[in-house]
Design a protein that fits this description.
The mean pLDDT is 94. A seven-stranded mixed beta barrel has the order 1-3-2-4-5-6-7. It has helices at 12-25, 61-74, 94-98, and strands at residues 7-10, 31-36, 40-47, 77-85, 106-111, 119-126, 129-137. A hairpin with a 2-residue loop joins strand 6 and strand 7. It is built from three helices and seven strands. Bound molecules: zinc ion. Zinc ion is lined by residues 83, 85, 93, 96.
């Protein structure tokens, strides 16, 4: 048994909000921020994809500031960064890896390649090394 498998605990409501936001953004990628405590994702903050693209996302900096303020007021920290892949699998692209600047948060990706069965996976990315973590929905 490997002792080092990390786990992200995710509140059902946050999970549902992520999937709904990804579907609403389709056919473009959607993005947002997950707020929570040390190992739990409690609340999802949807953001607009300023790229309006099916192959990339960019969080609007002004919206991001509003989310950081809302998290501060709600007493939660940034716990994860979320975006969707509309046709490819739920795995970080080379660009996702290159632009992952926060080793202390989770990178959550949902694939909508099967719209009926979205696949959500979570990763830590540290110095361009990707490791998957388990998601436990509570
Ligand atoms: Zn991506």
């Amino acid at each position: 048994m490997t002792a080092s498998t990390a786990t992200l605990t995710l509140k059902q409501a946050a999970y549902d909000a992520m999937i709904a936001h990804a579907k609403a953004g389709y056919p473009n990628e959607a993005c947002g921020i997950l707020g929570g405590g040390a190992d739990t994702g409690e609340r999802f903050y949807p953001l607009k994809n300023a790229d309006e693209s099916p192959i990339s996302y960019f969080m609007d900096p002004k919206e991001q500031l509003r989310v950081f303020k809302a998290m501060r007021e709600g007493g939660v920290e940034m716990r994860g960064i979320f975006h969707s892949h509309v046709t490819s699998e739920a795995y970080p692209s080379q660009k996702d890896v290159r632009l992952a600047f926060y080793p202390e948060v989770s990178y959550l990706i949902v694939s909508l390649s099967d719209m009926e069965k979205p696949v959500l996976r979570s990763f830590r990315i540290n110095e361009e090394k990707v490791s998957e973590e388990e998601i436990r929905i509570v």
